């Protein structure tokens, strides 16, 4: 059974190739085996695709893009404003470190909640709030030393801090954000 199926298949393929070469335009003076690819691959008529430019309304995309230019510092009648904001002063340039403000002209202070030690009475974890100061350029360790000494003087207890010099960040544990803001505003940042 298998042998008869193979014979039928071989006879069909032999017949189809013979009919292909008999119907194709083979030049009788040229031998087929001298250039077999000439007759096996069809000729390419067009290789380039057509391109059509479609007009697009980019106004919907442009309003989602961030503002490329930072707006000017707003002018107020008196400082600090009712929210406690003050603009940067020239005194901030006199220190060995500099704290760059965010594009909305606020100090780069962020809150982070981390899991702390296990409470043995309730068998639940306590959480602690950390204040992260970002965008510190220059001598980050001098900034951390000045900030820690200011906070310890105001609070009356030691404050834990961690410096990430490569990223220009300082993490502070045990101090409120408002007091840290007050320190940077007093330095002129």
From TrEMBL:
<protein>
    <recommendedName>
        <fullName>Large ribosomal subunit protein mL49</fullName>
    </recommendedName>
</protein>
<comment type="similarity">
    <text>Belongs to the mitochondrion-specific ribosomal protein mL49 family.</text>
</comment>
<dbReference type="GO" id="GO:0006412">
    <property type="term" value="P:translation"/>
</dbReference>
<dbReference type="GO" id="GO:0005762">
    <property type="term" value="C:mitochondrial large ribosomal subunit"/>
</dbReference>
<keyword id="KW-0496">Mitochondrion</keyword>
<keyword id="KW-0689">Ribosomal protein</keyword>
<dbReference type="InterPro" id="IPR007740">
    <property type="entry name" value="Ribosomal_mL49"/>
</dbReference>
<keyword id="KW-0687">Ribonucleoprotein</keyword>
<dbReference type="Pfam" id="PF05046">
    <property type="entry name" value="Img2"/>
</dbReference>
<dbReference type="GO" id="GO:0003735">
    <property type="term" value="F:structural constituent of ribosome"/>
</dbReference>
